[in-house]
Amino acid sequence: MISKSINNLPSLQDDLTMSFSLMAGPVLDTSHSLLILSGANKMRDCYALSRMIFDHVLNLGYFGVKGEDAVKKALAHYHQKSFRDLDRKIEIKDLKFGIGLQGIDKAPISDKLKEALDYFTSNKGFELRSWTGENVFKKIELIRDKYGQEIGMMLIINLFFIYRHSSEIIHGTLFGGLFSRGMTKPENEQPNDENELEVFHKTRISFILMCTILLNYVMFEIINFHFPRDKESKELADLVKNFRITLFDE
């Protein structure tokens, strides 16, 4: 249902439609990958994919709130980052590696590209990584103010269950490793054997799947706010309300 609605976005070549399409497509694709991994009980990988979905939906909502200004800023970020990719190098003490086009630093560039490069370069000459300048809490606040408390709460739920632990797992921290083994739970609740660990993984995967369902709903409702599809919106709301997950077989 969601996929069909996304494919039927207006064909207008406006900034908002373009940004919605570029965010929504990967959400659907990665959601499918998540379903495959969940069936294989790959909890850590499910967390990593759910974080990707969360960030895409969050940015889609941010585009919806900020409109053309945010899209133009994102395009400037893409423009200068693509140019930097033509000549990249890394140096750490005596370690050096790089690939680039010879003489690219002397090539003439447009005023638009120069402006983008200047904007995303710090006073010390380093590339600025963030394109929004807003943290995740501020983005959710902005999205809640525009699209309502229900949408904001669904994002908060994902922030609570997904964002923190997925970051630790993705960055390979000791906490992330121990969490994946159930070792961050109270001692009397920690898995004692592989069977209990499997139950723990399946339970956490069920949370991830429920959160992902909410994220897909949030994405659809934000798009529906700008390009109304009332019939599909009601059908999806009923599906979410009646959604159930079987955690595991006894």
TrEMBL record:
Xref: InterPro entries: DUF5677
Transmembrane feature ranges: 205-227
UniProt keyword list: Membrane, Transmembrane, Transmembrane helix
Pfam family, one: DUF5677
Protein name: Uncharacterized protein
Source organism per UniProt: Flagellimonas taeanensis
